[in-house]
Write a structure and sequence with these properties.
Blueprint lengths: L10 H7 L3 H11 L4 H23 L9 H12 L2 H22 L6 H24 L5 H16 L10 E7 L9 E8 L2 E9 L3 H18 L6 H10 L8 E9 L4 E7 L5 E4 L4 E4 L18 E4 L5 E5 L11 H12 L2 H4 L1 H13 L6 E7 L2
Antiparallel strand pairs: 1-10, 2-3, 3-4, 4-5, 5-8, 6-7, 6-9, 9-10
Length: 371
């Protein structure tokens, strides 16, 4: 059984307070309307501003310095709507004028006024941004954090059987939480499906499109037989000027090791053959998503045996300014040789760090192997 929380006001005291008409009207006013929180905070900050102005002018400008208005303005910029912030700023100007009249302009130093003016401009910009989003307070930042966490959760592969191993490494440009590289995956029984997607652009600029497409592609994965053609049809219906999207799709049977790879303008998947000890480039080919109405892909089929591995990656690992992509792929395969002696699990992160050193781009790497 769930117990109700104890009331803040004892029942007897509450019964007495509700009989006072003045208090009842105040409580009803504070609770009235959908913007009650914004109004109540505006009243609180305005009263605090006027009180600080009075105390600074009449009691002590050292203990109640006018610089405290900077903190009040900053709180207003973070929490209030733009109209409410304008009212608060008028209260701040009134308090400053009162101090200047009663104590003289010398108590308002130029440095403090410049800092307060800069804070006001910053507060107005923050309030305008939140107004465009239609959110109050810091809810907009919380929404971005939720979206970031969702994208990270989608980057986790499903649990695999004991005789399989996997490793995922995502590294966004500039250390950002958002980027243009993402993956979606699903497992239905022994069938594992993975799609690694690269949206044009990098960092935060490509992060918004990646967030939108991750939900769409995640819903299509495992629901349609021809995954990449379905994604291509969706993108082809979108407005032009959205930039290009490349993707690679892996369908793997965990019981037999049989796999099928389809690609849409994505860098080729490479396979480690334990029998020969070499990395082999996949022959899967296809056009970038969203360019043509009907996408035709040339799949690559094979079987993963004991000791074999598949490596999926984005062009951030092999593409560098002034260098050919083929040379970048050769360098990747050369660096991948270090995965064999150190193990796929421990060698994935050093491989990404080595290949991404010296340039700022989104990078993603997926390794699946059969010990």
């Amino acid at each position: 059984m769930s117990s109700r929380p104890a009331p803040l006001i004892p029942p007897r005291l509450r019964a007495i307070l509700v009989r006072i008409p003045f208090l009842v009207r105040i409580v009803r006013f504070l609770r009235r309307g959908p913007l009650a929180r914004d109004r109540n905070l505006l009243i609180t900050l305005s009263l605090l501003t006027l009180t600080l102005g009075f105390l600074s002018a009449r009691v002590s400008s050292e203990w109640f310095s006018p610089s405290l208005f900077i903190l009040v303005t900053l709180v207003g910029g973070l929490q209030l709507r733009l109209r409410s912030l304008a009212v608060l700023l008028c209260s701040v100007f009134f308090a400053l004028g009162t101090i200047a009249v009663l104590l003289g302009p010398r108590h308002l130093t130029p440095g403090m006024l410049v800092t307060l003016g800069f804070t006001m401009v910053l507060a107005v910009l923050m309030a305008r941004t939140r107004g465009k989003l239609g959110v109050q307070g810091l809810r907009g930042d919380a929404m971005l954090l939720e979206l970031r966490d969702r994208l990270k959760r989608q980057g986790d592969l499903p649990a695999l059987p004991k005789d399989w191993g996997s490793r995922v490494v995502l590294k966004q440009a500039g250390g950002s939480s958002f980027g243009g590289d993402f993956l979606v995956s699903t497992r239905n029984g022994s069938i594992l499906e993975i799609a690694l997607v690269d949206v044009s652009g990098k960092g935060v600029d490509a992060g918004t499109r990646a967030l939108m497409l991750s939900g769409t592609f995640g819903g299509l994965l495992g629901s349609v037989d021809a995954f990449l053609p379905a994604c291509n049809a969706y993108l082809h219906r979108q407005p032009e000027g959205e930039g290009f999207v490349t993707a690679v799709h892996l369908r793997l049977d965990l019981s037999t090791g049989a796999y099928e790879i389809t690609s849409a303008g994505h860098p080729p998947v490479v396979k480690f053959d334990a029998g020969t000890g070499t990395w082999q480039v996949s022959a899967a080919k296809g056009v970038v998503l969203g360019v043509v109405p009907d996408l035709h892909c040339e799949p690559d089929n094979g079987v993963l045996h004991k000791g074999d591995a598949l490596m999926l990656y984005t062009d951030g690992l092999i593409e560098q300014p002034g260098r050919d992509i083929d040379s970048g792929l050769d360098r990747l395969l050369g660096e991948a040789e270090r995965l064999v002696p150190s193990g796929f699990q421990s060698g994935a992160r050093p491989l990404v760090d080595s290949m991404s050193a010296g340039h700022n781009d989104d990078c993603a790497l997926i390794l699946i192997w059969r010990p």
